[in-house]
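Figure S7 source data.
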Amino acid sequence: MTGRIAFLGLGHMGGPMAGNLVKAGIEVLGFDPFPAAAEAARARGVEVAGSAQEAAEGASIVLTMLQAGQQVLDLYRGTEGQKGLLAGAAPGTLFLDCSTINVDEAREAAAAATDAGHRFVDAPVSGGVVGAEAATLTFMVGADDGDFDQVRPLLELMGKRVVHCGGHGSGQAAKVCNNMILGASMIAVCEAFVLGEKLGITDEVLFDVAAHASGQCWALTTNCPVPGPVPTSPANRNYEPGFTGALMAKDLHLALQAIESTGVAAQIGPLAAKMYDDFLEHGGAQRDFSGIINDIRDRSNR
Ligand code: NAD
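Tokens for the predicted nicotinamide-adenine-dinucleotide complex:
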């Protein structure tokens, strides 16, 4: 299908994703500077190099799964004392970034890669660690048509849905819009449950009505923020994630940057970002993002 893959960033998402490629018989050489992440990937059968440069040498695809856009740009272009991967790669190498980063940074990475004679695809994911383990992720892909055709079979080994969203940066654009809906709709669902409680209806009654009415949404019917109606939702295990408050805040800040750079007159998205910042200050960083209902309850009981 393809030559060797350099897999850079073997964390919560990258580790199982790289493991799924190895399981499918793809040759992978990974790297992660965090020894525990590298070790966990080795336990999944991933061969691990001593540096990103070593992993990338001779690879046909350089896949990154990092926390932030600046890390991707630094790896590509290099930093003081660290040679950039773009400079060392064979002409035409495909740089595939699956991290969630800002749309402008993705376009900057695309320009840097293509200026250096390479190709670039942004392919952020949704589906979380569970989807990474089970190879059921959704990939939102920004790519030229030919590059999309090349990466699609590879992405299908790690996910169940691969959507071509447009040219460079479009995958990140789709992801940031989707997650702004998610952050805002979770807050709306949480406020509705607290309001229902204050008005004297039970959580079960509100769920029974809204889940089958126009209030229906993923935040309600899959990740329900109150225990009971959806037994698998994180609310039933004291808001163990799931999708953490820290990641939701990160994604809403990416949405804020996109709103600012485009001049969209959004109000709910920025307010949701502020509410998630407050949630982090109240210990929400490592809780499931639906735990924000407790902030809303606390403020309602003051
Ligand atoms: P993580 O922090 O667990 O993993 C990132 C890894 O990158 C770390 O192990 C870190 O040591 C490594 N790293 C940093 N610099 C590096 C370098 N120069 N070379 C190689 N590795 C390097 O993060 P994660 O949860 O795996 O998330 C990865 C990306 O996926 C993020 O952009 C996140 O927003 C996105 N995402 C995460 C989830 C989720 O549920 N965790 C869901 C969807 C999307």
